[in-house]
Amino acid sequence: MTRHKRKMTRGRVIAALTAALGLTGAAIATNVMLSPAGAAAVWPTPNGQQPVTKTIEVSGTRDGGLKRFYGTGDLGDGGQDEGQPPLFKLADGAVLKNVVIGSPAADGIHCSGSCTLRNVWWEDVGEDAATFKGTSSSATYKVYGGGAKKASDKVFQFNGAGKLVVSKFQVSDFGKLVRTCGNCSKQYKRTIIVHDVDVTAPGKSIVGINTNYGDTAALRDIRIHGDSSRKISTCDRFTGNNTGAEPTKTGSGPDGTYCRFTSADISYK
Predict the structure, then answer these.
(1) What is the topology classification, in CATH, of domain 54-232?
(2) Is the pLDDT of residue 117 over 80?
(3) May I ask which residue range the UniProt record assigns to the signal sequence (predicted)?
(4) pTM of the prediction?
(5) Could you please report the per-residue DSSP string of 48-101?
(6) CA-to-CA distance for 40 and 199, rounded, in angstroms?
(7) Helix (H) and strand (E) counts for the chain?
(8) Domain spans of the chain?
């Protein structure tokens, strides 16, 4: 019996985005700090600052009031070493909003399960900006608004299971915007939607996924700035593993199955 794969149309992707964020279409268009005509948002001026000496545990909702949080003591190394603790650790279902993460940023934010990051800004990404670690296939991670700069490697590290939705975000001077883990000891199928995002060179890739685990990435309304030579890869495909070995890259660009977008979804400014 032959099974026909059902491709995600633009309408289905937008509907999935709306449902995942729990917003109406109007809210998606207006509930974020944006300049007119979809231009990149103006970076906020922090409202004071707070040193973080120990990981802040968040359950429920925490509003940072746009204060700058930065690591100090054990969280103040400022290096790129793997295994650093985060500044914030979110419990399943937690919401973190209106936060500026300064430098040193340690390993940014860890989400233990479903989480929402709303209007969170990384001035100088540390090891990673955020790592998503939930183990349920129904876990949903929402990044809405905000931005990240100076990520020498990954901005969002997707180690867990479920769906990641990145909307109305901006990123510049980065390695990878989203990467599903290529060699974690426990692997999952992961779904990514990146929608209405401004990407500014230099950068290496927007999304990297593992096709052998069934990962998919849908890109919609992506604006790439300052990359006239088109060096920033849109969607890289890999064969991942659970042994810790370096994953093998197998392709790049839209393929209709794993990297779900067309050239019309990417514009160069």
Answers:
(1) Pectate Lyase C-like (2.160.20)
(2) yes
(3) 1-29
(4) 0.86
(5) SEEEESSPEEE-SEEEEEEEEEEE-GGG------TTPPPSEEEPTTEEEEEEEE
(6) 9
(7) 2, 19
(8) 54-232
